[in-house]
Amino acid sequence: MKKTVLRMVVYTKDVEIITGKSGRTARKLLTRVRKHWGKPPRSLVTVEEFCTYTGFDTDTVVAALQ
Questions:
Q1: Can you give 6-61 as a three-state secondary structure string?
Q2: What single-letter DSSP state applies at residue 5?
Q3: Is the pLDDT at 47 greater than 70, yes or no?
Q4: pLDDT tens digits for 6-34?
């Protein structure tokens, strides 16, 4: 039986797919999420942090990442 690994991190390309925005806009959004949570630049953004900030449903985002 193959074990399914759920991703915990959201990358720029994921934000592009989820929001339909350009790469530059996706990077800006991730920067705002990091700033909101007090994270250093270039740190990873988790699915939970992204969903809490944007208001997206976690289950929907996780499904989009698979």
A1: CCCEECHHHHHHHHCCCHHHHHHHHHHHHHHHCCCCCCCEEHHHHHHHHCCCHHHH
A2: P
A3: yes
A4: 788 999 999 999 999 999 999 999 999 99
